[in-house]
Amino acid sequence: MQILTMGNDLLKQKAVRIDKIDSKIRELAGQMLEALAAEKGIGLAAVQLGIMKRIFVTRVQNDEERIFINPSILETSVKTTKYEEGCLSIPGIYGQVVRSELVTVQAWNEKGRPFTIEAEGLLARVIQHEYDHLEGILFLDRMPDDKRIKLAEKYKTGAGRDTN
User: Fold this and answer.
1) Which region among 57-66, 110-119, 125-134 has the lowest average model confidence (pLDDT)?
2) Catalytic site residues?
């Protein structure tokens, strides 16, 4: 599976709801987890593979692999934190993004069972980042205009790192 990179119009489109969680969706989830491992990433949305479906997967540090189908963010904390993010769709580019410290998300697993989790720390950040992909939002879109433009230019000319 090839990961789309910034500049591909699909990354700016909203994903569509999955109507039926069947063997094809389970196979997709498995392929996404394999792609995530191959890229040594911590989160991957189907949109990044050109598949416009509302599904993403995570594997954060020692945390288990998680599959989120048709996720909804129910609640986010008022308290936020700034943290350096990167993205498999914008390789080599990193920047400081402000996100909620806690997030409550409801989704369905690959067996079609609903679940709700409250996540904090890095898992909360990854969930918000991957959810953004389902909405057609890249992490650069969450940055102030001047930093976003600077990093987008660095991406076009080669890798860069935001040190602020």
Assistant:
1) 57-66
2) 130
